[in-house]
Amino acid sequence: MQHPWRQMSDAMQARGMVQVGDDGYGTRRAQGRVTRIAGGHREDAKAFDEGRQRTHADAAAAHHQQARTTEEFRRIFHFSDCSMAYNVTLVPSGREFQVEDGEAVLSAALRQGIGLPYGCKNGGCGSCKAKLVEGAVEHGAHSSSALSKDEETRGFALLCCAHAKSDLVVESREVKGIGDIPVKRLPCRVNALERRADDVMVMRLQLPANERFQYLAGQYIEFILKDGRRRSYSMATAPHEEGFMELHLRHMPGGKFTTLLFDHTKVGALVRFEGPLGTFFLREESDKPIVLLASGTGFAPIKAIVEHAVHKGLTRPMTLYWGARRLKDIYMRELAEQWAREIPGFRFVPVLSEAAPEDQWQGRTGFVHRAVAEDLPDMSGYEVYACGAPVMVESARRDFVAHHRLPEDAFFAVAFTTEADNPG
């Protein structure tokens, strides 16, 4: 009996849908070149890859033509109930990749070396939110703060939990550079534990001596717990610091992992992690002034970015706005003040939202992102790096873009979600 894929290929050839070569599966081999077949028209793949850049309209038109061919394929062979891959086209870049039925769009992109913005990867933070230009998706569990019903109705999707139900055209910027660094799963030992506030622990991890762990300043790792669950924490050390890694952990009331860490973890304990992960890192190719915006332990990746910038000799002006409830919650205030004294062009602006009388606070008060807006009514020439609570990150993104002329692609962020933020 003839193989079913051979039968389909023969039938498609008979209908003029494809030209079948020696391998019998819809390709034609000739002098090391592969013919690309899309919507009944063949394009030389090499020429396509080397020179062609599509506009939004070009990409959408190509997607529409390909979708018609895919639909014809399914109609002929009654594949409506079969598991199939869908094609995803990114605009404005025109890059394409395949997503399997039941696979999250973000996972498929990362698997194929295409960098898209993301943070938590579990529907809690909204960093992977993108505009769905064409096609249909079905969302898994996610936080309403990451994607509201109104946003979903207006065509936005959370790519970390969006599953394709057709071919897609997605408007999203691509993140260059993260695909060059391998994601590893490594054991390490707790080298030091230091309480810096009532609810903040600084943990230092000793990395394996025979392993080089590469990452970009601002990225994070995931601890792998014994039951398979994961907890994410950003590196507070710059990549050039070899042999150890520093993390800043906040104790969350009722949080099983942080309770275990604060009450029972000892120096010398063995832990496992996977990383590096995330698309929050310093864009070194820019020369724009930098606004660093942190709340709570969101200072950790900001610390890595500052120390990396100093190590690289970058001279871009930097202003750090660090928001907290009380003065004691700015747990490395002395370090930030030292940067302001020693780094040319560096400013430090602490902001307290609930200063107590004993703080004797004479500085800025209120929401930290509003302090930035008060100082910089026009942010059109800046880049913003924001890290901390989801509500702060989303408020800053919305207000800076809508009211202070910050370009959307100049806002980089990672939101620190907790178990309460995560769906399910």
Task: Note down, in words, how this protein is organized.
The structure is a single chain. The protein is an alpha/beta fold and 424 residues long. Helices cover 25% and strands 29% of the residues. The chain has helices spanning 4-14, 45-51, 56-77, 105-111, 149-153, 256-264, 299-312, 333-342, 368-375, 390-403; strands at residues 29-30, 33-38, 41-44, 85-91, 96-100, 129-134, 137-139, 156-158, 162-164, 168-171, 184-197, 200-206, 220-224, 230-234, 244-250, 270-277, 290-295, 318-324, 346-352, 364-365, 383-388, 411-415. The strands form five sheets. Strands 14-13-16-11-12-15 form a six-stranded antiparallel β-sheet. A six-stranded parallel β-sheet has the order 20-19-18-17-21-22, with helices on both faces. Strands 5-4-10-6-8 form a five-stranded mixed β-sheet, with helices on both faces. Helix 9 (368-375) runs parallel beside helix 10. It is globular. The two termini are 48 Å apart. Mean pLDDT is 82; it is low at 1-53 and 76-81.
Largest sheet: 6 strands, antiparallel
Number of helices: 10
Strand order of the largest sheet: 14-13-16-11-12-15
What class do helices, strands and sheet pairing give?
alpha/beta
Strand content: 25-35%
Number of beta strands: 22
Low-confidence stretches: 1-53, 76-81
State the helical fraction: 25-40%
Radius of gyration: 25 Å
Rounded mean pLDDT score: 82
State the end-to-end distance: 48 Å
Overall, the morphology is globular
